[in-house]
Amino acid sequence: xxxxxxxxxxxxxxxxxxxxxxxxxxxxxxxxxxxxxxxxxxxxxxxxxxxxxxxxxxxxxxxxxxxxxxxxxxxxxxxxxxxxxxxxxxxxxxxxxxxxxxxxxxxxxxxxxxxxxxxxxxxxxxxxxxxxxxxxxxxxxxxxxxxxxxxxxxxxxxxxxxxxxxxxxxxxxxxxxxxxxxxxxxxxxxxxxxxxxxxxxxxxxxxxxxxxxxxxxxxxxxxxxxxxxxxxxxxxxxxxxxxxxxxxxxxxxxxxxxxxxxxxxxxxxxx
Length: 271
What we know:
Elements: E1 9-13, H1 18-29, E2 33-38, H2 41-54, E3 61-65, H3 71-85, E4 90-93, H4 109-119, H5 121-137, E5 140-145, H6 158-178, E6 183-190, H7 196-209, H8 213-223, H9 236-246, E7 258-261
Parallel strand pairs: 1-2, 1-4, 2-3, 4-5, 5-6, 6-7
């Protein structure tokens, strides 16, 4: 399906791996110019080569480092996008961490602040930096990445749960403010997708249980994510496909929404 966004420009954060990289590839294949952003340039360079290999002819792909905990760096990223492409049409914020995990009473203020600074304030900063460029164009798409944890919190991940719930609320808030001006803002909530973040979780679990990683994944699905009725981890490309659709002209009547891409993990039919 032609997403009808060829020639647009997208900034994708957290783009050196996982959902961010998969999204950049899909958008580039549609002819969208891509700015990939993450913290480490060498990893970004490798990701950019992968994206170029999938890109439509004449599509531009540019890696730019930015630390989303610094608003100055985020503003520099936005300025480079404007200088190079005349502004940004699409923003996809995939940058995030699991953050501090454990018993609630064992977590410090610093544990909470660190997770919030990246998982919630990172999204706040990129939206503050890029919305004005979309206002100038009278057209825009923003997709933020939340999580199943926002709707179905896990007791050992309280900072992450709270941040991702905040992302859904932020999405709705911003859509009410800016969608009348042509900027459609949505979020997606993945569950247990194969990314470096969940890889690290499974490696930690395998070590704790003295098993292989594959055995840890099987145990985790059976004991910790029993509502995932498809009985497997998700693929980054499966989340990216929903994000790409939300960036398209076909999603022109969708805003303020949260799309669950979770294999059935969230038990309720609502929310």
